[in-house]
Amino acid sequence: MDLIIAMRTFAEVAHAGSMNAAALKLKVSGALVGQRIAGLEDHLQAKLLNRTTRQQKLTEFGESYLEQCRDILELVDFSEGKASDQQRLAQGRLRIAAPVSFGTSALMPALKSFREIAPEVEIELTLSDNNEDLIAGGFDAAFRIGELEDSALIQIKLAPYRMMICASGVYLEEHGEPKMPSDLNNFSAVLLSRTGRKPWRFKQGSEEQSWTPQARISVNSGQAVRVAAKAGMGVAMLPETLIKRDISTGNLVQLLPDWSLPEQPMALIYHRDRYRPQRLTKFLDFAKSVFRNQLA
To answer: Where are the alpha helices (DSSP H) in 86-231?
Structure first.
């Protein structure tokens, strides 16, 4: 048995949905397709497909093996120089990590467009404000916010992550609207707990001011801080990408728009491999086109 041919046949059966459909695509008989699958199962000493007279379904092992097949076959094509851009189909599972607020408000809505570009790619997205380890976590790529340590990983610089100060109209009716950062001394804040009570630093031209927020509420979720701010519980400093819709609809009011806040660098990181699956190449190109000049 030619193992590569058997693997190609199995991948085509999984993609086509049946052995007969795969046989038509491969231009061989259905019987030969069945023989190749049976030979592959015998070689692996494991069942790849559960078959009935009406349908077939990948076994749990078959699903896992299919991912390995696709990677191996793509690598074979790559090494033999046979995989042109048209020939190489972006497919398989792509594991991505991203910070919670960015992933929820900016990345998730954008993935609809990526699905149109690469419909055969399955996205597995992990949202966490901890910097997930790419190798230990088995991730293909990860979005990072903040200064990056020197790393063997490749970094693609994206648009800076911008922050805004905001509050609800109801809260401002009761407390007034600050004209200068020093006016915030009369305000209470809702804080993201992981940032603590670090000073908020403002800049206008050459002038700089800072304010250490006074807060009775802190929470470990940017979305929860956003909800609290909308409910009139205080002023909040939140990512622009998280609240830009609330600002445009009037649910939140941007404060001190003439004063800038420090921007945080943002990057997409991935492994420094000579061979890169087509699905990852497609995603990297997509991320650069969407997030290099804007965040949403």
So the answer is: 100-102, 108-117, 134-137, 169-175, 222-230
